[in-house]
Amino acid sequence: MTTDHISARQVVVRLNDVHKQYGEAKALDGVELEIRAGDAVAVMGPSGCGKSTLLNMVAGLDHPTSGTVQVHGQDLGTLNETGLALFRRRHIGMIFQFFNLLDDLPALDNVALAAQLTGVSAGRARGRALELLGDLGLADRRDAYPAQLSGGERQRVAVARALMNRPALLLADEPTGALDSRSGEQVMDLLNDLHGIGQTLLIVTHDPRLATRCAGRLVELADGRVTGQSTLEPAV
Predict the structure, then answer these.
(1) Half-sphere exposure (Cβ direction) of 168: Cα atoms closer than 13 Å
(2) Domain count within the chain
(3) What is the pLDDT of residues 101-133, one digit of tens each?
(4) Fewest C-beta atoms under 10 Å: which of 58, 94, 181, 234?
């Protein structure tokens, strides 16, 4: 599961005085955040604190009311929707709580499609997809459709899809939230392995076990503000 690493310790994510307002409600209130290559950062906080909004800002799925969001050296505010979609495909991998797989495609094609959308030939895309599924212990499930997979298998397919284009940044939104405890443990192990090989991670979670297992730094949010940052010791 090799990643296309950028220069060691280069800044991959920088949020500068980011505000987001929905009507009268402040979702983010002056957030400053920096994530460097190889960092694994977990964002935690109570419901409604701005975690998902923060993740959406970094993914370019939402726009700040004010402030700037830079990812992989690109100011996302300078890109139109087409440019943002292309940037995401090339540089950002995303893992969602409910997998977001295409029900009418088997696992192999769900994974390969991520590369084909950037112009990679079907043959090359399927070759890399098969390699990733093998790395994740799913080679024998490549022809299975999402409905035929367990929750843990579906999430591992989603991880393979997220890694397909060797992203500079991997985003995970409550990646174990829809899984039973055993499947959740498998996904935690997988994210921890990715951290170990230098994949840059930003994880939004309510689960302190996931944060401790998979991240080296904790960012705490409350009422749209960063209220604390701390180094996490690896779980024993």
Answers:
(1) 23
(2) 1
(3) 999 999 999 999 999 988 899 999 999 999 999
(4) 181
Read off the CATH number of the domain in which 201 is found: 3.40.50.300
Structure tokens at 100: 């977001």
Is 36 a domain residue? yes
Question: Whole-structure pTM over 0.70, yes or no?
Answer: yes
Element (H, E) at 222: strand 217-222
In whole angstroms, give the CA distance from residue 28 to residue 18.
7
State percent of the chain over pLDDT 70. 95
Contact 157, 133 (CB under 8 A): yes
Rounded Cα distance, 10 and 73, in Å: 9
pLDDT tens-digit map of 198-209: 899 999 998 888
Dump strand ranges (E) for 145-200: 169-173
